[in-house]
Amino acid sequence: MKKYIVELSIEEREVLRNVIHAERMAAHKRLSAQMLLKLDQGPAGPGWTDARVAEAFDCVTRTPERLRQRLVERGFENVLEHGNKGAHRVRKLDGAAEAHLIALACSEAPEGRNRWSVRLLADEMVALGYVESCGKTTIHDTLKKTKLNLT
Question: 22-37 in b/e burial notation, b at 16+ Cβ within 10 A?
Answer without folding.
Answer: eeeeeeebbbbbbbbb
